[in-house]
Design brief:
Strand content: 15-25%
Order of helices and strands: EEEEHHHEEHEH
Number of domains: 1
Bound molecules: S-adenosylmethionine, zinc ion
Number of helices: 5
Largest sheet: 4 strands, antiparallel
Shape: globular
Strand order of the largest sheet: 1-2-3-4
Distance between the termini: 45 Å
Structural class: alpha/beta
Radius of gyration: 18 Å
């Protein structure tokens, strides 16, 4: 386990570049294969490969960037999500997640971590996002393990998590015939 704050089991982690295991050292993890070092701050490993961009969803242009910066502020972001109807979405997601009791649930693009509130009590939550600002927002509500990383280069070992494809009536019919 990394650091003092509840953290990510190190054996789940993989170097996002060469996919090999990482070993733990003070304030960092190191890839056993390529030797790349990734810092660990308050138990949160940082696997971002390019310079961090606060407010990933920022639009181009000065007005877009200004709006993006404002909307990226965690309480503003939560308010915008609420106005956009996130509560209804969370109710639906919560129903889907009932089957996750006892599992470790990875929330890719976790934002400020709203989904954690609708997990079954026995499930464990793992947050992953590429935006440090969202991490700050997440930390105001949760001490669950978190990873700074890119969804297109997941810093997790292959087969460390089961993939649950979304089950739709059409998919169910296909599986049953
Ligand atoms: C629309 S928000 C959804 C947030 C959250 N799932 C929720 O329901 O409130 C999308 C999130 O994905 C993150 N994101 C965008 N591109 C990403 C990437 N390549 N890797 C990781 N996170 C990414 C953004 O920082 C943002 O927090
Ligand atoms: Zn590596």
């Amino acid at each position: 386990m990394l650091g003092a704050v509840p953290s990510v089991p190190t054996d789940l982690l993989a170097c996002p570049v060469c996919r090999d295991v990482v070993t733990e050292g003070p304030g960092r993890v190191t890839c056993a294969s390529c030797g790349r070092r990734y810092s660990v701050d308050d138990g949160v490993p940082d696997f971002l490969l390019s310079p961090p961009v606060d407010g990933l969803d920022a639009a181009p242009g000065p007005i877009g960037r200004s709006l993006g910066a404002i909307v990226g502020i965690p309480p503003v972001y939560d308010l915008v999500q609420r106005l956009a109807g996130v509560e209804e979405t969370l109710t639906r997601v919560g129903r889907k997640l009932e089957q996750a009791a006892g599992a470790l649930v990875l929330d890719i693009g976790g934002g400020t971590g709203r989904i954690e509130a609708v997990l079954p009590a026995a499930a464990r939550y793992l947050w992953l996002d590429a935006d440090r600002q969202k991490l700050r927002g997440f930390r105001t509500k949760s001490a669950s393990p978190a990873i700074l990383g890119d969804a297109t280069r997941l810093p997790l070992m292959d087969r460390s998590l089961a993939l649950r494809p979304r089950e739709t009536p059409a998919r169910r019919r296909r599986l049953e015939t």
